[in-house]
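Next comes the chain:
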Amino acid sequence: MTMRAHYRVTRVSRAHEWERISIAVIVCLLLSGCMAGPAYRKPIAPAPPAFSGNGHNGDWAAASPADATDRGAWWTIYNDAQLNDLEQRCATANQQIAAALRVYQQAHDIVSINHSALYPTVSIGAGAVRNGISANRPNISPSAARNYWDFLLPVNISWEPDLWGAVRRQIESSSANAQATAADLANTRLSLQGTLAVTYLQLRGIDLQAQLLRNSLDAFQQALNLTQARFKGGLASQSDVAQAQAQLEATRAQLVDLGVVRAQQEHAIAVLVGVPATDFHIAENPLVGNPPYVPTGLPSQVLERRPDIASAERRVAAANAQIGVNQAAFYPNITLGTQGGLESGAISRLFSAPSAEWNAGISASELVFDAGRRHAQVDYTIAQREQATALYRQQVLAAFRDVEDQLAALRVLEEEAAVQQRAVEAAKQSTQLSMLRYRQGLAAYLEVLTNQTIELNDERIAAALVSRRMVASAELQLALGGGWSTTQLPKN
């Protein structure tokens, strides 16, 4: 009896020992923070030490401290109240921005869904069943009840601890994707507000062209009046009158044609600010002056200020985390569960202590053969990460190209504008001299007509350069990321 008792005590103590060891192992695994998959490292994207062509519109390097200022409303640099109002309306009413915002909200909800997998699931129910037992049932006691109630209040708790980090990697991936969609939202907003600014500046450039044509119409009308007077006096031919009339009407037709382009620009702006094109109108306001100074900062800063680059980089992080999700599939699945509740044949005794019942346990499973499916899934996610890395580096190269394009445009257009202005001044002087010679009868009207045509053409080219330079400055701001930075990404 003593040996049997000792054996039973020993067996029970060993069972308790194994139970303690199992619990200790699980706790250690939970506390160790074990995570499958590679740790994320941001891809290397070398940046040049400085942009080429620095020196346009002032000393770029000396002005770099201004880059730290808040440039969120980057369009205010043009000091145009109407543009400021349109940009605000675009930010709040544009439907593409609204759609991009909903995409981000969906991605954020997916993060919350994945977070929930870290915690146990708990379900509770209630049931009342009336049972009737056959009187001819085998082995039934004659005294057993044939009809009875069964009242239930079950509670089930199940938890699969994230021992290998699959859930945490999935959270990491979905968080990176949510940040990518936030950057996409910022990029959509930047692109649309940039399109609005460019379209608005082009519209004001059209107004400058229209103003120039109206001034030319006045000059051509005076020339026609002079030619008609000289014709009546016998000092000019009918051909001179016809040429002056033709020039006047051709210029008037050009002015009418500008109305078509201006209407299209207005309609484009209406869509950008989220209103119907019908009855939408922007008052004429000719574009004047030189483009404002836009600080570029260092090329490396562009990597933090372009939302499209941030989006591409975050997708690399999301793809990297997915590798860990698939690698965790090689490890066992362990589930902890417990069931309990209250059960009674009479509802009056349902909430008494004897009605309680419960069970708890742990289960583990391991997939031993899948014909290489898990290996293929890991290889697939590695390839996805490498693809995302290549796209990120390509986006960086495209960003540097965009900045260099606009810097070159500003530099070249500034030189061209200076040359063109000299051409305009020379054309004006030539027109004045030919008109004087015509009044004195020393030149044919064809000479006047030719010089007036050259002057108008040179003035229109100069006006177009004003618009192109302003647009290039806006495009440069977009290439630099506007006023955005990666610090504005949400912390999921």
The domain at 122-161+333-365 is CATH 2.20.200.10 (Outer membrane efflux proteins (OEP)).
